[in-house]
Design goal:
This protein is α+β, with helices and mostly antiparallel strands. It has two domains: 61 residues, no CATH class; 212 residues, monomeric porin ompg (Porin). It contains four helices and twelve strands.
Length: 303
């Protein structure tokens, strides 16, 4: 009986299905991994997001791994940046740019001259500092026909990634625009309305005080309001469009300034820039026009 059952059991075992073989784990295809690594090495979050987006569509079976890899890279990058902010000294985080070039003006003066600007910025965990110095000078036949100087400093205290309060101080002189000196103080709140790798938009609003010594020997002291818009748009690799506008609104005399600039990277830290600025005074001194414009072509060195 046992001998008869043995061939039967062998026959039954032979007819059973073999044990399933474990499927190979899903991995990111090598070609996509190479592109993703290259985007990460560039340090551009926009490029990483773009590669991850289209790679997930091209390889849907690896989409979860691709998104996870991109997310982990951004998290590691943010953690490293936060560590740098904590461990760095005050001057280690200072960044800036120096601009030198020529300008052409219309309005109270019609001249060609030279311009120089230095901007410094330090962005820490809670404090952000901005310092700007500008000088413009021009002579015609040995006679000064354009002389404009400005220095401003603005510290910001950040409550969050977008909201902050600010204080601002500015000194300016330009007798060709109608004043020997102008001091401005302001404080208020600011908010980053748009913050993406390619577009940013900051809005600020607060009360202000200005003291202006005009060329007609009148001195004006007045409280008012200050508003500011700072817009930056990265149009493409190495090409940036910026639009800045500021307004001091007062009862006796209001001032509005705007500046539009287009910068294109040449090589390394050097860029070429074209800009157009407008300055408007609601009640300028006698024999002065309301609006002045300045067109500039310059080289910008970032450091």
């Amino acid at each position: 009986m046992r001998v008869a059952l043995l061939p039967l059991s062998v026959l039954l075992l032979a007819n059973t299905d073999p044990a399933p073989v474990a499927a190979d784990p899903v991995e990111i295809p090598q070609a996509i991994r190479t592109m993703l690594d290259a985007a990460m090495a560039s340090g551009s979050e926009a490029e990483v997001n773009t590669i991850a987006k289209y790679a997930s569509t091209a390889a849907p079976e690896s989409a979860a791994l691709i998104r996870r890899a991109a997310l982990e890279w951004k998290q590691d990058r943010a953690a490293a940046a936060h560590k740098t902010l904590i461990e760095s000294g005050f001057f280690d985080l200072v960044r800036g740019k120096a601009e030198i070039g020529g300008f052409f003006t219309t309005g109270n003066t019609n001249n060609v001259g030279v311009t120089g600007t230095v901007e410094l910025k330090r962005d820490g965990i809670q404090w952000r500092h901005n310092l700007k110095m500008l000088a413009e000078y021009q002579e015609s036949a040995g006679v000064v026909s354009r002389e404009h100087y400005l220095i401003s400093y603005q510290p910001n205290y950040k409550f969050s990634d977008r909201a902050y309060v600010y204080g601002a101080g500015q000194y300016e002189e330009d007798r060709f625009l109608g004043y020997f000196s102008r001091y401005a103080l302001s404080a208020g709140a600011g908010y980053t309305v748009v913050k993406t790798p390619s577009v940013s938009l900051d809005l600020e609003l607060g009360p202000s005080f200005r003291r202006t010594e005009f060329t007609d020997l009148n001195t004006e002291r007045e409280l008012g309001a200050r508003g500011r818009i700072d817009f930056d748009w990265r149009l493409g690799k190495g090409v940036t469009l910026s639009q800045d506008a500021a307004a001091y609104l007062q009862n006796l005399n209001s001032t509005v300034t705007t500046r539009t600039a287009l910068a294109a990277k040449l090589f390394g830290p050097l860029s070429a820039q074209m800009s157009y600025a407008v300055s408007y005074e609601s009640r300028p001194p006698r024999n002065r026009v309301n609006t002045d414009t300045t067109s500039r072509a310059s080289l910008v060195y970032a450091f």
